[in-house]
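2024-03-11 09:14:02 DEBUG pipeline.ingest accepted 1 chain
2024-03-11 09:14:02 DEBUG pipeline.ingest length=310
2024-03-11 09:14:03 DEBUG pipeline.predict start
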Amino acid sequence: MARIVIAEFMDDAAVARLQAAHDVLYDAQLVDDAPRLLAAAAAADALIVRNRTQVRGELLGALARCRVVGRLGVGLDNIDVAGCEQRGMQVIPATGANALSVAEYVIGTAMLLLRGAYGASAEVAAGRWPRAQLSNGRELAGKTLGLVGFGAIGQTTARLARALSMDVIAFDSMLDRGHPSYDELGVACEGLQAVLARADVVSLHVPLVESTRNLIDADRLAGMKPGAVLINTSRGGIVDEAALAQALRSGHLGGAALDVFETEPLPAHSALADVPHLLLTPHVAGVTHESNQRVSSVIADQVLEALARA
């Protein structure tokens, strides 16, 4: 029987499946108790985390007997993958399991930003009637969605957008122009600058690596179509937050939504405070009731398989 340590929240049914086969320590708050997490890591044969647990440095060194690290999500920037592999640990992300949740977030948020009519509840309830000011919203149909990154989440987003009569263009440095996914989904493959210049809605779906850090900087924001909206559900650090705030304050962009940030939670006096036409959510685009069940089930299955092989 192996020892499995789960340091962040996981669906109860998936935890129960793990408990039926192995000795499990499950504490969704363990990530916030570093001494206890380090102590638990020393005895762990498997570690399961989300995005807050930093599997590197001291924690990685404490995983003396660990054979598998399960990631309840897809981004791996909180895990020293090379370091894990050097120690013989398999790193398993839940690839594709939260794609629909993120895609629905992108489409729903694009609608909110383009329409611009949903922030008036307090005014209407108070008896004011800002109908004239809110009568110039834009429809989603006929607009161009630009995807920066065309993996599983980008492709799912494209499917939803096409069903709503959007045109879709995409850039992905890892896919060549002849990749069949473009034709299958009716998506035009373009360069990064062309995607930014042509799209009414730009949605980011790339990992945080050195080549994508501050990928959307002041110059690239200036190259976006006037009035366009930007949505980032991928990773903080890809968008220059101060430059985005300036692009919104100047009126060059019509709106933006950030679900991820360079520092999470945001620090006091963030450049993103009190910025017009900006929606902020706390890294939840891929987390819904349904996606948590899918992600947890996928990781439970794969961790059980990995332990059985070890």
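2024-03-11 09:14:41 DEBUG pipeline.report Residues 3-97+289-309 form a domain with the Rossmann fold fold (CATH 3.40.50.720).
2024-03-11 09:14:41 DEBUG pipeline.predict end
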